[in-house]
Specification:
Length: 189
Amino acid sequence: MKRASVHIVFGAVALCCAAVAAYDWIELQRAEQVNRTVAATVVANKAAPKDAQRGVASTDDAPQVRLARAIALSKDGAYDAAGPLFESLIREQPESEVGRAALFDLGNLYLRQGIGHSPSGAIESLAMVDEAKARYRSLLRIAPDDWDARYNLERALWLAPEARSASGAPDVKEQHDVKVRDPESKDLP
């Protein structure tokens, strides 16, 4: 009797492992299909740069395919084509994993433009950094534990600090509360 129960338990565990392996195989096939579709799109965009600038994208594609296409366009420098793709993904799936990734990558796109890749100069660069900050804040409202978004928001704040008070005049109490640390302070990380 004991041997039969051990065999039954072993069979059940084997079936569970087989089910997990089958599920992973199906997901792998789906991911490979997405990768093939994205690779074909990138090759087509490099062969026909006018299509890449227009951001040709079918709304019938899976969201992961459109996200990967937008990332590829962004990396190739086709910001005008990548931005609308990211925006459409954010509108369609605001709190899904794809929507959060699109929000983060759109913030990165704006930050890259604001850092100095924008030919229009400093005024547009500040506007792009402000757009990046807005995207990172939106992402942090959805996923407060996203440390990459926190880091990039901090980087954007270093590039374009925000005013503390609306009046522009510093608060007297705030001026008196400022403390300068000793240069040899041991409590700094």
